[in-house]
């Protein structure tokens, strides 16, 4: 029976759209809107604290839920696991809408944590796609198409999200509608999985492990040097790029005082640069260890330049280069994690790799917040110091490792 990958690509695209549609709106909700009235008179440092709390709630939930749910894909094949994850995520998005409707900040933060816990669809899709072929070249193409689906969803979401954060455009652009739209897309994803045929149902179901998932993962990482090395380098990379993306809206509105049209255009440029990086990466089977060190070094140099960018033109050129090298590194390192994962624990390893991203998305904004908050006005440019430090650590780690990544 021929494997039908189309539903998986559709889920990745729509799920990416639904999730990224929300991110640009969070800054508006905390700093510019009337949905949480008591924040209007709150000190700016307190608003930054709330902003970070909202930002880390979602990845914190992912960090807990994705490895747990994703690892089950090695033992539970087909639709049930997907339906549980999709319905849980959809319910969480609807709870977020209700929290905004009743103007409850605490409920909103809890709903983001709940949504993150069930957002295992990326891990499930990558796990099933990785299991659909044993040919390395085909596997890389499949992973590339999956990643392009995510980036396509990101670019469309950013374009639309700009309008949901502008109250001057009318009631239809109420941010709450964005959460309703995301909820609707969650239901569409559920229908796609529910009614799809040949949905990898012929995959072999593995027996449930006799040891705990954490113990199994620890054993795999201890025995598999390449997997351990790629995973560590991936963590440094994700810590490097998480802070700038989390606070990108703050940079545009805080330093360069640009409007939402510029924000939309720049985020679309980021998506285009990532696509360019993915396409470039597909032409190479893998990058040498020296090339990866060079890419990390380029990231550190660009991060340092971004901290002292004298003009907006210099900033956008350096930021585009920063995102390009980040896309090369992330695609290569994640592909290596997938290809070197044991066949009987691929879902567990993919869930682990993605949980690193969620962990970075939770840690990096907190570190950046300490640099940004001071007695003087908030220094948003300081967050690139976080990127500089982690890119240097990533380059040093690969440079002094005893074996090369193949």
From TrEMBL:
Coiled coil: none
Pfam family, one: MFS_1
Stretches that traverse the bilayer: 12-36, 48-69, 81-102, 108-130, 142-165, 177-195, 233-256, 262-279, 291-308, 314-335, 347-374, 380-400
Keyword DNA-binding recorded: no
Highest rank taxon of the organism: Bacteria
Keyword terms: Membrane, Transmembrane, Transmembrane helix
GO molecular function: transmembrane transporter activity
Record-linked InterPro entries: MFS, MFS_dom, MFS_trans_sf
UniProt cross-references to SUPFAM superfamilies, sorted A to Z: MFS general substrate transporter
Keyword Transmembrane: yes
Major facilitator superfamily (MFS) profile domain span: 8-406
Protein name: Major facilitator superfamily (MFS) profile domain-containing protein
Source organism: Aerophobetes bacterium
């Amino acid at each position: 029976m021929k494997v039908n990958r189309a539903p998986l690509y559709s889920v990745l695209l729509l799920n990416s759209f639904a999730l990224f549609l929300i991110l640009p709106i969070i800054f508006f909700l905390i700093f510019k809107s009337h949905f949480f009235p008591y924040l209007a008179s709150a000190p700016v440092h307190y608003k930054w604290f709330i902003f970070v709390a909202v930002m880390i709630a979602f990845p914190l939930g992912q960090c807990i839920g994705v490895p747990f749910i994703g690892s089950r894909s090695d033992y539970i094949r087909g639709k049930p696991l997907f339906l549980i994850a999709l319905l849980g995520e959809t319910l969480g998005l609807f709870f977020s809408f209700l929290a905004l409707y009743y103007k409850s900040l605490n409920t909103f933060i809890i709903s983001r944590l709940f949504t993150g816990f069930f957002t295992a669809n990326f891990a499930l899709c990558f796990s099933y796609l990785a299991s659909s072929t044993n040919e390395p070249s085909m596997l890389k193409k499949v992973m590339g198409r999956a990643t392009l689906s995510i980036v396509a969803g990101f670019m469309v979401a950013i374009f639309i999200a700009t309008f949901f954060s502008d109250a001057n455009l009318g009631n239809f652009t109420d941010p709450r509608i964005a959460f309703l739209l995301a909820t609707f897309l969650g239901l569409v994803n559920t229908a796609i999985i529910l009614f799809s045929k040949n949905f990898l149902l012929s995959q072999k179901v593995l027996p449930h492990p006799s040891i705990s998932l954490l113990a199994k993962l620890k054993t795999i990482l201890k025995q598999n040097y390449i997997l351990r090395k790629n995973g560590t380098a991936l963590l440094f990379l994700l810590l490097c790029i998480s802070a700038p993306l989390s606070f990108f809206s703050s940079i545009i509105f805080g330093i360069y005082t640009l409007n939402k049209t510029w924000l939309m255009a720049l985020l679309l440029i980021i998506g285009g640069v990532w696509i360019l990086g993915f396409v470039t990466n597909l032409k190479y089977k893998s990058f040498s260890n020296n090339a990866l060190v060079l890419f990390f070094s380029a990231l550190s140099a660009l991060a340092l330049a971004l901290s002292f960018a004298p003009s907006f033109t210099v900033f956008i050129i350096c930021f585009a280069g920063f995102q390009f090298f980040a896309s090369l590194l992330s695609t290569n390192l994640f592909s290596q994690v997938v290809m070197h994962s044991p066949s009987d624990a691929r879902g567990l390893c993919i869930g682990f790799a993605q949980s690193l991203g969620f962990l970075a998305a939770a840690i990096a904004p907190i570190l950046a917040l300490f640099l940004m908050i001071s007695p003087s006005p908030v220094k948003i440019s300081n967050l690139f110091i976080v990127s500089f430090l982690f890119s240097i650590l990533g380059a040093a780690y690969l440079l002094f490792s005893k074996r090369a990544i193949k």
